[in-house]
Protein: Glutathione synthetase
Organism: Muricoccus nepalensis
Amino acid sequence: MDGVEWLGVVAGVLTTIAFVPQVLRTHRTRSASDLSTPMLLLFTTGVGLWLAYGLLIGSNGIILANAATLVLSAYILAMKLRFG
């Protein structure tokens, strides 16, 4: 992996990890009332499209980061829809 690919992997890891505290808080409190449904829908859709892009160009860094972020953001979205 070259330096550019490593840069992408580090960026992906950091942006993915950034969601973990929100997932834990939402799971613990069973509340997502302070989160915007349109933002979550747009973000989750965007992450899904980034994942598709990564698959199409064969970039492991983009694929791994966005697959993990998609799982986390979809979980938060599901909690928002379930608990408000």
Notes: The helical segments are 3-17, 20-29, 37-57, 60-83. The chain has a mean pLDDT of 92.
